[in-house]
Amino acid sequence: MHPALNIMVKAARRASQIINRASHDIEHLKITTKQYNDFVTEVDRAAETAIIDVLREAYPDYGILAEESGQTVGADSASEYQWIIDPLDGTTNFIHGFPQYAVSIALAHKGQLNQAVVYDVLRNEMFTASKGGGAYLNERRIRVTKCLKLDDALLGTGFPFRIFEHSDAYMSIFKEFTQRTSGMRRLGSAALDLAYVASGRLDGFWEFGLLPWDIAAGCLLITEAGGLVGDLSGGESYLKTGNLVAGTPKVFSQILQVIDGHRTPGLEA
Length: 269
Hints:
Blueprint: H1 3-23, E1 31-35, E2 38-41, H2 42-58, E3 63-66, E4 70-72, E5 81-89, H3 91-95, E6 102-109, E7 112-120, E8 125-130, E9 134-137, E10 140-141, E11 154-157, H4 167-180, E12 183-185, H5 190-198, E13 204-207, H6 212-224, E14 228-230, H7 238-241, E15 244-247, H8 249-260
Parallel strand pairs: 3-5, 11-12, 11-13
Antiparallel strand pairs: 1-2, 3-4, 5-6, 6-7, 7-8, 8-9, 9-10, 13-15, 14-15
Helix pairs in contact: 1-2, 5-6
């Protein structure tokens, strides 16, 4: 395992201790609204601090892009490396006691995803990936499915919950997928959805308006597991636009075709 990945696993486990303790006393959590339908708890902040402390101890000069604290940098502001951190992906699930949330940490080098960890703290499932080194679930190599046809695919997605500008396009796309696939799932944690594509539990995924910390680690998991990720045109701007399509090579292209048939002005790639 790459040395940086070892540290990321350590950081994810440290955060999970905080999350698991808090999960037994959810009714007493302090919850703040960042914007409409976008919540943060004291657990998010404490878990993020724990992650940053572990990463900074090992790599003090690396830059950081973290959900709760925003973009910060280490001693060397010109660092080519950047941690991308979501301490608790699926906060809304967490505060409702819905058991689907995860810690997500990625490392980018010169803007390219290099290492990834998605940790399901409830199921003790550690998804990891290194660029060029494959993807793993608890040290077992994982691959995307061999699904070839959209008709046979099980897809994940996320409903619009912060910005509703493209809701009509989303619903028309969703309707076509419900009619043309074997099923749709909306679980509430994009990081885990992407990990599930990488490990073969889902055949594809699509969503609009995501943020870099939601998807960075999961995207590397998928590409290292033999799948494809892209923006709504199949390009590489998904971390910038937040509009993401992922899946097996064959399903990926078919998802793009469906979405392209419903794209409206202003819905960028």
